[in-house]
Amino acid sequence: MALLIPTELVIEIFRHAAAQFVAEDRPTVVHVAQASKMAYKVVAPVLYRTLWITVRNFPAVQRCAALSSFQRICGRVRHLIMFYSDHQREIPLDLFTSVESVTAYREVLERLSPVCSSLRMAHVWTSDLDDARESLPMTLRQNITHLAGDVSYSDSYISNTSLWLNGITQDFTGLTHLAFEVVHLPHEADFVMAAFEALLRVALIDDKLQRVVLRIAGACCAREAELEQVVYQISDARLRIWCDKRPIRNWSDDEELTIEDALHQRDIWTKAVPTSLLVPDIASA
To answer: Judging by DSSP bridges, how do beta strands 177-182 and 239-244 pair with one another?
Structure first.
């Protein structure tokens, strides 16, 4: 006698399988979605949850934008990654009304702000946080709870750390998570360590910030021990650090890794570790 599996269980199996394999074997997930109307209904939210637009796939996305189903697809997108800015105005960003997380140039964020009230997490790619503060509309700044971006180490930032950070936390009124990304450091910049310590300490003065993260990557990893020492000495439970040692030689590398992380549901907030987990020789130094 054949074993009949409840429909609800079949649906959960489809959904779980799609979530597990969408990163490693996306073509198979696409085939599953084409199996039946029920399969498409279950798998599509997983398949289109993360959408990335790069130089390589822009022509394909542009062709899809001409289809009648594109609006429905856009409505399923929750995490939008857009690295291709040259022709970004050719993509109807006003259709992405349910996006919750964006990694993109600030111009993309500006265009999303009038239609995307659900946006909470913003990673301002290749722009520093001051750029985001000055250019993003007030409505968007009020909604964002998680903000990540590059931090400058120029003299002006060092001398005005408190003023600069207070401006960010006052403008982003709903901000609870703030991440500083550092990929490049000058070789002769011992003053930078003291500057980063001041930056992190000032950020942690704000009680509304539940998490402050420092991500170091690329050439900056050569100063890993020094930066970890700075973070450990601050000793605040809200502070996290992520030393991203994956090879990042250029923006293209960073782009590919960002997409890979998104598909595996990894980001700066999940990868950063508390200071208590730093290696013993750093913690005891």
So the answer is: unpaired
